[in-house]
């Protein structure tokens, strides 16, 4: 494909995915709103978040191994060989996850004792029951990682997102419909049924490709799969170790800490999922194709342009969320069981997470760029090192910062990972680093002006809107719009962007 053709395909796919992902994130927020309404930052909310973290850890573990390994091999293989690979891996995932879910059901006490040792007897009992009920979902969620990746490889992006939509919708409906009769266990019902529905949705598009006959792949392909998989397995064990260790530390802290951190992460995930993550899903197959074609010039240019747009867009977003975290949390969550005290313990970690927003966005693209080029060991190694730093920083900071040590360490981890991967990449890629740094410095200058303007205008709007007894979020939101226009004008004046084109320096 030529560059204009690829650009057009990526644009259309990105717009489609953006719309569907926006709907998905709205459902994700509805899920959190429902959870906050019924459970707030209570013990029950802590238990649910802890169990969901354990179940989803398996999903993320398999997804992060399957995506770079299978997608690359699937796209390079001939058609029959590719679908044999799909069925071969599908069966292995089923066998492994069946064993995992069985172990969870038979030994839930041990798992909770290891992953949430700070729970008291009441929370421990609830967690054991919830974990056993949710365990079978591991099988369906992990199988969906493979079907998701294969659908993306065929550039069928709608079915994976529809599956995610159904997963969220079922979880919401389960809490609303069964809360009165089942209480906290309604969440486990939602996790299990939602996982089944998600996989079934994928199979509507892939059922004709699934075979029950004996399939095999050649010995060299098996060796290559293992060669690529084992570093990712180690890397993902360490990556998931962050969430698990955070869970362990938080289980000893004030009741509601786990839930508060979860709510804050949900808010900060929105811009990351809507732009860098959606774009990384669309762009990964194209990155891989360009690497196969050895079209390095276009490959590197795309990377530079995407990273500059992330810095340009996410810097003001990070400033706004850091400065007005309390108003944002209050507007989104404060109703029902989520009271002002819940807002207080949620807004502070949100302001800390906001500091790392640019790093979160860059990481999604940068890691996929490495994977598309078949360079798996660098991001895995860097990931392991930064995870260990995260754990060390958390351990050393908890006596002084309490539960806030967790977001502080997380931001440090992601920041270091992005910086190290960028330095490694600079050795091999024509980055036009002088131009890139020049553009970045102009964006930062514009961001400083944006922050000052935002605070100044907010003071004016706050007193003005207060006379009309409007919600607190109105003044910051109006200030964001005005300051955003000024920020855009400064970027235009400095020549960072031209309307209708990408940032200069590409």
Overview of the molecule:
There is one protein chain. This protein is mainly alpha-helical. Helices cover 84% and strands 0% of the residues. It is built from 18 helices and no strands. Helix 10 packs parallel to helix 14, helix 11 packs antiparallel against helix 13 and helix 11 runs antiparallel to helix 14. The longest helix is centred in the N-terminal third of the chain and has 37 residues. It starts with a helix and ends in a 13-residue tail after the last helix.
List low-confidence stretches: none
Termini Cα gap: 20 Å
User: Structural class, judged by helices and strands?
Assistant: mainly alpha
> Roughly what fraction of the amino acids lie in strands?
under 5%
Mean pLDDT: 80
Oligomeric organization of the protein chains: single chain
Q: How many β-strands, per DSSP? A: 0
Q: Write down the secondary-structure element order.
A: HHHHHHHHHHHHHHHHHH
Shape: globular
Task: State the share of residues found in helices, binned by percent.
Answer: over 70%
The main β sheet shows up as: none
Radius of gyration of CA atoms, rounded to a whole number: 23 Å
Structure annotation, total helices: 18
